[in-house]
Amino acid sequence: MDQIEHKFIKVQGLNLHIAEAGADADAHVVVFLHGFPEIWYSWRHQMVGVATAGFRAIAPDCRGYGLSDPPAEPEKTSFQDMVDDLLAILDHLGLAKVFLVAKDFGALTAYMFAIQHQERVSGVITLGVPILPPGPIEFHKYLPEGFYISRWQEPGRAEADFGRLDAKTVVRNIYILFSRSEIPIAPENKEIMDLVSDSTPLPPWFTEEDLAAYGALYEKSGFRTALQVPYR
After folding, report:
1. Tens digits of residue pLDDT in 203-212
2. 76 to 72, 79, 99, 203: CA distances (angstroms)
3. Residue 26 is part of a domain; what is its CATH number?
4. Is the domain of 130 the same as that of 141?
5. Collapsing DSSP states into helix, strand and coil, what is residue 99?
6. pTM for the complete prediction?
7. Confidence grade of residue 134 (pLDDT, cut at 50, 70, 90)
8. Domain boundary residue among 113, 135, 157?
9. What is the DSSP string of 141-192?
10. 129 Cβ partners below 8 Å, 6+ apart?
């Protein structure tokens, strides 16, 4: 972690946080894009590995996530904002071309960026979300009403569910749910947070130190922007 440096960049009136490792200006650049419930910290091991291999690694916190400022109206945030922010970051840092490594909703940002700004992308690597053709996503036709994405898309519902708990517990519960083999689906009389009991242990790869880091930053940022992008 000592190899990772932090800075803030002014983008569209917001101070966006980026973490950086391997500062050789002539090196190939790899930009890591997080998903939910993640932050730059999710890529810390990969950043060090990439930097050690001779690349320059950059991991931004998306607007409204981690140490980055939230937009004035989180409910109006879109994936296009994420694409525009990424372009502004590359321009500010003077980076003509980069590799994009992304997971979860970060993959959608990477795909959109690569289509809109092909000349700025050396390659795209994604985890968890395949490239999808344009058009509405219709998973709700095939999954029960209690599917977590359907629940979190409903304005106010996740806010009420999360609001019963502190941010650290919300992050804890989500990581436990996302580490299971079953898709998180709540019965009609329960909310998504009710699917995890207080006695359920953390996944073996997710430490209490990790939880404290995530919890502190989500306590700062809240979940308003995170529920808008990717879920709404």
Report:
1. 999 999 999 9
2. 9, 10, 28, 34
3. 3.40.50.1820
4. no
5. strand
6. 0.95
7. confident
8. 135
9. GTS-TTBHHHHHHSTTHHHHHHTTS-HHHHHHHHHHHHTSSS--B--TT--G
10. 103, 104, 105, 107, 108
